[in-house]
Amino acid sequence: MKEEEIIIIGSNGQLGTALKEKYPNATAVDYNELDITDLKQLNSFDWSKFRIIINAAAFTNVDGAETKDGRVGAWKINAIGPANLSKIAIENNLILVHISTDYVFDGTLEIHDENEPYSPLSVYGASKAAGDILVSQIEKSYILRTSWVIGEGNNFVKTMMNLGAKGINPTVVSDQIGKLTFTSELVRAIDHLLVNKAPYGTYNLTNDGSKVSWADITRTIFKIMSTENNVTDITTEEYYKNKNGIAPRPLNSVLNLDKIHGTGFVSRDWNKELKKYVEKEIS
Ligand SMILES: NC(=O)c1ccc[n+]([C@@H]2O[C@H](COP(=O)([O-])OP(=O)(O)OC[C@H]3O[C@@H](n4cnc5c(N)ncnc54)[C@H](OP(=O)(O)O)[C@@H]3O)[C@@H](O)[C@H]2O)c1
Questions:
Q1: How many CB atoms are closer than 10 A to CB 197?
Q2: What is the number of structural domains in the chain?
Q3: Does the structure show a pLDDT above 90 at 160?
């Protein structure tokens, strides 16, 4: 696989940034250069030198998607965008790599495999499910379904590190259960599927290791930082009580990794990756 044949779309986000690091010779475009909701712009773009589109663009503000404007934005970027890219991929005979989320499920099952029927709770989840359905119709596509993504940019780990550094004792939800996904792991998996020409289709992808709550992740972060801060557990229901405009979230976000492991992909443990990430941020 030649890096020059790859175009990374939505390249300034968390995943886009990690993809640019992995593929410095790929073409990387963000919203200002290529808007996936603008079919006219996509149609007039020169796709001839590419073989692979990696779509890292998305509307990821889960609560923002519940507002009047956010609902429109989420559907445009998460559903119409992938539909447009699917059309472009078919017309130009390109492989389309797309990213999904555990929010396409209601989280009632303790662990999710790739064949679970869609049951989104939120506008974000529904718009992402629509995008998945469209991309999965094209033969040459990979959908990586992930959760709890941590990379460059604002994310949960950085928020908790800031609180820890300020000596604040946070109250953190303890009934949402999952595993972290570092963008480095997502990039490794994308590269693995492409390089090994794995069968097209949907693959779950998170870091591996024990399943955990956000509260316990915060305790682990504080331990790595050697801070004395306390973390108080709270249920999701209590945490969001009396707050308006909050999207419902799945409680169980653990994804079954058997399918991608079956292709020879070897997962890294989120605990080790979290330690590396926090230590790098501190240094
Ligand atoms: N973050 C998570 O916890 C999480 C969990 C599960 C799945 N995912 C999925 O993982 C993927 C990557 O997420 P991420 O955290 O890297 O997202 P992110 O940091 O929010 O990045 C998304 C990027 O898409 C760009 N974008 C927005 N609208 C666009 C448009 N119309 N055309 C082109 N680019 C556009 C954004 O540009 P602007 O910033 O300029 O708007 C931003 O650079 C997404 O598909 C997301 O749904 C994320």
A1: 10
A2: 1
A3: yes
Residues within a 6 A CB radius of ligand 1: 9-10, 12-16, 30-31, 35-37, 56-58, 60, 77, 81, 99, 101, 128, 146-149, 153
Q: What are residue 139's DSSP bridge partners?
A: none
CA 132-244-125 angle, 5° bins = 5
Nearest atom within ligand 1 for CA of residue 153? 19
125, part of any domain: yes
For helices 214-225 and 270-282, angle between their N-to-C axes, nearest 10 degrees: 50
Block residue for tokens 């997502």? 186
Per the domain annotation, does 169 fall within a domain? no
Radius of gyration of the chain (CA): 19
Provide the strand spans (E) within the chain: 6-9, 27-29, 52-55, 95-101, 141-146, 149-150, 171-173, 177-178, 181-182, 201-204, 212-213, 232-234
Clarify whether 124 is annotated catalytic.
Answer: yes
Q: How confident is the model at residue 153 (pLDDT cuts 50, 70, 90)?
A: confident
| Mean pLDDT for the stretch of residues 244-265 | 97
Tell me the pLDDT tens digit for each residue of 202-236.
Answer: 999 999 999 999 999 999 999 999 998 999 999 99
Ligand 1 atom showing the smallest separation from residue 11 Cα: 43
Which domain CATH number covers 147?
Answer: 3.40.50.720
